[in-house]
Amino acid sequence: MAEQSPLLTVYPSSCLVDEKIEVEVKGLPADSKVTVHALVRSDDGDDWEAFGHYTSDPSGTVKVSRDKSVGGTFEGIEAMGLLWSMRPVPETKPGRRFRKTNVQTPVKVVFSVHEGHLDKGFKHRTPLSSTAAERWYLTPEVQRVEVTEGEIKGTLFIPAGSGPFPAVLDLWGGQGGRVEYRSALLASHGYVSLALEYVGLLNAAGELQHADNSYFEAAFTFLQKHPRVCPDKVAVMGMSFGVSVTLGLTAYSEIVEPKCVVCVSGSHIMPLKGSLADVYAALQQNVHKIRYDEKMRIIWRDLLLPIPDDPSQKVKMSEIKCPVLLIAGEDDQNWPASESAADMRKMMEKAGNSHLLTVLSYPGTGHLIEPPYSPHVRFSDFKLLEAKTKVVVLWGGETEPHSRAQEESWKKTLAFLEEHLYGNSREVTRM
């Protein structure tokens, strides 16, 4: 290698998580074999890594967006491969999932370049060069506010400016807790967003209570009445179990009238009509359909299969009066998202409102369709709410197609929200 250390640069060195970066190494000898490595420590304290094998050009340069990786965690010309192909380092306990729990701090990525084509032992080697970059869900101008409105529990994210802004009620899935990072990212793109906590709520006595329609209606109304929100431009975005809630509210509630809805990796079967307890009870009747793979990872998708013919067991899709974006992974092992999407399309075609439906269906894609460049997680630990025990859940998907789906579906989600919430009237600066 050269006597002088090569120069490793990342541009931009600080940006949103859905922005692309340029990773470049200069000052290498011509035609030298190197490994470019990326390392992240998650908020849970786990280390995640990705790396590619490169050969420098005649000028001694490696440009990740231009050059082919011939090995590592990804191959080919992949500008963002050092992020989307991340996986836990080998010594990590299996079953980990990458989730940002503190959106007020960045995802710090340490990039390094090593001599030779390496596949392991990075922490025991001194790199030729290294640098760090910050990737944010939250821009500095966005305000984060804890919501204490009545019984509503959640976090509100408000973009900079006087507004009023369109808004999104953000509903995550059945694992519960408060998941803020998607809401933070939406606010960074100009939407007031409420990350609503609704699974695993505890009452004043510390007892588990199940949210019902009135809880979600109160959250939607809270958003509508916020002084920085356009009351007639509120969307609902559901993920997994949140899709059941989203579709049920949209079809049946007299209070919730969203401008549009986004549904990710969910189903229209067993809609919310009363309390979440009713949905849980209905699912319990199908526990005999649960399967396990060869590694005893639980597969839940069959709980809702086959798609029922009885219309009373499904959301009445004819009642949907607003645009719907439906995102489904065809290898979803948690929910029958693909089969549900096909049935919803059929129901809406029959009802004459299919013009409101946009379906994005992705082969090789699993359940956890996250914002772009997030690590693909095929399986992870999952805490059962009532039993207070952990199981290992198979989510599905293969890394490369899943990552492609995350990137494309997020771009189309932002375009969908832009079209139906802003239209031609956007006045805020695009982040």
TrEMBL record:
A GO term, aspect molecular function: fatty acyl-CoA hydrolase activity
GO BP term (any one): acyl-CoA metabolic process
SUPFAM superfamilies to which the protein is assigned, alphabetical: alpha/beta-Hydrolases (SSF53474)
Pfam family, one: BAAT_C
Residue ranges of the TM segments: none
Entry annotation: catalytic residues: S240 (charge relay system), D332 (charge relay system), H367 (charge relay system)
Residue stretches making up the BAAT/Acyl-CoA thioester hydrolase C-terminal domain: 214-422
Domain of life, per lineage: Eukaryota
Entry-linked InterPro entries: AB_hydrolase_fold, Acyl-CoA_thioEstase_long-chain, BAAT_C, Thio_Ohase/aa_AcTrfase, Thio_Ohase/BAAT_N
Residues annotated as domain Acyl-CoA thioester hydrolase/bile acid-CoA amino acid N-acetyltransferase: 18-149
Similarity comment: family membership: Belongs to the C/M/P thioester hydrolase family.
Protein name: Acyl-CoA thioesterase 19
Organism: Danio rerio (Zebrafish)
